[in-house]
């Protein structure tokens, strides 16, 4: 039977959708206005509420989570188009996952890795003792090993609170990571492997990022009792890609917002356009309304602050930091299959390639392997090229890469999800705002410096796991403490 009247379930879901959007109004005044409902902002709100403060969270998008997002699939499941992995020493995100009643599972990393180099496909066994030494020429293997040791040793000397205070900071900050490769790891294959690593981590070309920034990023890949290392950044087992969240990381911010912060304290579709000082604190102007707050938490990447007008203007150091740090072009091309067919070929789905649109791939299938998902990262210059294409053209360009790596079965895609974070108004890229040369030493100090009653959170401001969900949570906890002690 067909009818033009919408079904009752449909009506209910429409009503629910409408009520979610319209339910929270912007109050006249609060103790603290939090701008941004990513993990940083939501964590700050959680702790301030626990400290007895009145809080409103203003979020630009029609959803919470920022760069953590479960995108629905046609098969009824979800895929993680933003943050996906967690690992040891990421104590805060692991704690939050468990507090929210969520579970983790091992990232699929059984079997061989594919090296696609000089038009040749070579499956190899990643040897954990050698940090996964790839099948490249011997002089490069030596250069890669030496570079890893040297980068770790330099990083270990940095003070994670102030990497710019190291005696050699200006020297390192004047160089790009490309300069480092030219000096210490210039053989073709060493350059390829280390370039792939830094692109996989930061989605930048080596010439776009400061060496000091890379060292600080390595230093931050640990916790108060465990020194950071490049190995922990790039590894699955024992590293940042060790585990995933059952049901997807997107459940972390949605549960945090609904069960802990409270949906009534989160206003969606409320991009903040202006923050101006007034007699009672700050007038925070959003497209959903204006609130007067004693204190403001701005919880987003520094470059996004350029989309907000501050009155009075931010101090010069902070302004320059917002101007000069950059959001790298980053995306994912996720191909969904009936099964994770590569597993029966003894492949983990891990790829390192020197050509194509997607050169770094992981297995992103759900924990029960009820379907297969290949996650192809779109990084740096490859992302820039894909940005010029329509989604259909992008898919037509990316799938042949997967066929090259995994064989003709990779053509049998049931769904393709293209996520381009750099094209999103409220992200402008990812995973984190990076520093080109001579930015950290000049303006790094401004990262965590509050300005009047305005406090800055966001993963960029974290001492540990900057760039990660863990760093975002740590930053939210820090600003909440700063405000508790001053309000
Ligand atoms: C493709 C990709 C893969 C990643 N992989 C991992 C991973 O495997 N593991 C991991 O730990 N991390 C990963 N990350 C990084 C992780 O997603 C981020 O570090 C983290 O989510 C940052 O949280 P945040 O709260 O600091 O910022 P965001 O998540 O960016 O939150 C900022 C919020 O502010 C909102 N906003 C912006 N402007 C305004 C405005 N004017 N008014 C109101 N609201 C505004 C935004 O909409 C957003 O909700 C990945 C990121 C990407 C993009
Ligand atoms: C740091 O990480 C290690 C290894 O996971 C863990 O044993 C330790 O408890 C963590 N330290 C802190 C301070 O949380
Ligand atoms: C499968 O991969 C593992 C890990 O790389 C390797 O040790 C093993 O020899 C491989 N098995 C076969 C049959 O190739
Ligand atoms: C790839 O080609 C370059 C340049 O000819 C060469 O230096 C390198 O050793 C080759 N690498 C592999 C793994 O074949
Ligand atoms: C690290 O830097 C911070 C900020 O400048 C400083 O307070 C702290 O004492 C430094 N720590 C060490 C071990 O030098
Ligand atoms: C710092 O620079 C000096 C002078 O160039 C050099 O001798 C020293 O080894 C450097 N320290 C590190 C950790 O690289
Ligand atoms: C693709 O799927 C079709 C239909 O299920 C099947 O007939 C075909 O063999 C598959 N192709 C490959 C290469 O697996």
Mean pLDDT: 95
| Largest sheet entry | 8 strands, mixed
Radius of gyration: 23 Å
The unreliable regions are none
Oligomer: single chain
What is the strand tally? 20
Strand content: 15-25%
The ligands found in this model are: flavin-adenine dinucleotide, 2-acetamido-2-deoxy-beta-D-glucopyranose
CA distance, first residue to last residue: 62 Å
Roughly how much helix do the residues carry, as a percent range?
Answer: 25-40%
Shape: globular
How many helices does DSSP assign? 15
Q: What structural class is derived from the secondary structure elements?
A: alpha/beta
Catalytic activity: a secondary aliphatic amine + O2 + H2O = a primary amine + an aldehyde + H2O2
Enzyme class: oxidoreductase
EC number: 1.4.3.-
Cofactor: FAD
Give me some keywords for this one.
single chain; 487 residues; eight-stranded mixed β-sheet; seven-stranded mixed β-sheet; 15 helices; 34% helix; globular; binds flavin-adenine dinucleotide; signal; monoamine oxidase activity; oxidoreductase; FAD; EC 1.4.3.-
What does this structure look like?
It is globular and about 65 Å long. The longest helix is centred in the N-terminal third of the chain and has 20 residues, at 138-157. The chain has 487 residues and is of the alpha/beta class. Helix 4 packs across helix 8 (211-219). The strands form four sheets. Strands 1, 2, 10, 11, 12, 13, 14 and 20 form an eight-stranded mixed beta sheet that branches. The chain is built from 15 helices and 20 strands. The structure holds flavin-adenine dinucleotide (FAD) and 2-acetamido-2-deoxy-beta-D-glucopyranose (6 copies).
């Amino acid at each position: 039977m067909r009818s033009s009247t919408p079904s009752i379930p449909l009506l209910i879901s429409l009503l629910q959708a409408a009520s979610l959007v319209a339910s929270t109004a912007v109050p006249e005044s609060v103790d603290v206005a939090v701008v941004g409902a990513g993990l940083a902002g939501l964590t700050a709100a959680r702790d301030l509420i626990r400290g007895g403060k009145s809080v409103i969270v203003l979020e630009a998008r029609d959803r919470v989570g920022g760069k953590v997002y479960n995108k629905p699939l046609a098969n009824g499941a979800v895929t993680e188009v933003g943050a996906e992995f967690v690992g040891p020493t990421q104590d805060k995100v692991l704690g939050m996952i468990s507090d929210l009643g969520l579970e983790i599972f091992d990232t699929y990393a059984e079997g061989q890795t594919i090296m696609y180099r000089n038009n040749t496909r070579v499956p190899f066994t990643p040897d954990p003792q050698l940090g996964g030494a790839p099948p490249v020429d011997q002089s490069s293997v030596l250069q890669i090993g030496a570079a890893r040791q040297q980068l770790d040793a330099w990083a270990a000397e940095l003070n994670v609170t102030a990497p710019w205070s190291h005696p050699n900071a200006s020297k390192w900050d004047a160089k790009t990571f490309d300069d480092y490769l030219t000096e210490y790891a210039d053989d073709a294959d060493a350059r390829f492997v280390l370039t792939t690593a830094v692109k996989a981590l930061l989605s930048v070309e080596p010439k776009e990022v400061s060496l000091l920034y890379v060292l600080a990023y390595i230093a931050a890949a640990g916790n108060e009792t465990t020194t950071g290392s490049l190995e922990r950044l790039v590894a699955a087992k024992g590293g940042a890609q060790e585990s995933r969240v059952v049901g997807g990381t997107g459940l972390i911010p949605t549960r945090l917002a609904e069960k802990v912060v409270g949906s009534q304290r989160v206003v969606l579709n409320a991009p903040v356009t202006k923050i101006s000082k007034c007699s009672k604190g700050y007038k925070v102007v959003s497209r959903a309304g204006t609130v007067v707050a004693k204190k403001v938490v701005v919880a987003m990447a520094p470059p996004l602050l350029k989309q907000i007008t501050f009155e009075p203007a931010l101090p010069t150091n902070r302004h320059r930091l917002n101007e000069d740090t950059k959001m790298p072009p980053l995306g994912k091309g996720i191909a969904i299959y009936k099964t994770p067919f590569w597993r029966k070929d003894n492949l983990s789905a891990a790829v390192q390639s020197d050509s194509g649109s997607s050169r770094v791939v992981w297995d992103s299938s759900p924990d029960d392997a009820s379907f297969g998902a290949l996650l192809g990262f779109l990084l740096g210059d490859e992302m820039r090229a894909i940005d010029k294409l329509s989604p259909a053209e992008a898919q037509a360009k990316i799938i042949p890469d997967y066929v090259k790596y995994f064989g003709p079965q990779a053509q049998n895609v049931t769904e393709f999800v293209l996520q381009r974070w750099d094209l999103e108004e409220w992200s402008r890229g990812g995973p984190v705002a990076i520093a080109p040369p001579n930015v950290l030493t000049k303006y790094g100090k401004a990262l965590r410096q509050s300005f009047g009653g305005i406090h800055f959170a966001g993963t960029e401001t974290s001492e540990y796991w900057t760039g990660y969900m863990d760093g975002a949570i740590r930053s939210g906890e820090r600003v909440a403490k700063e405000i508790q002690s001053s309000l």
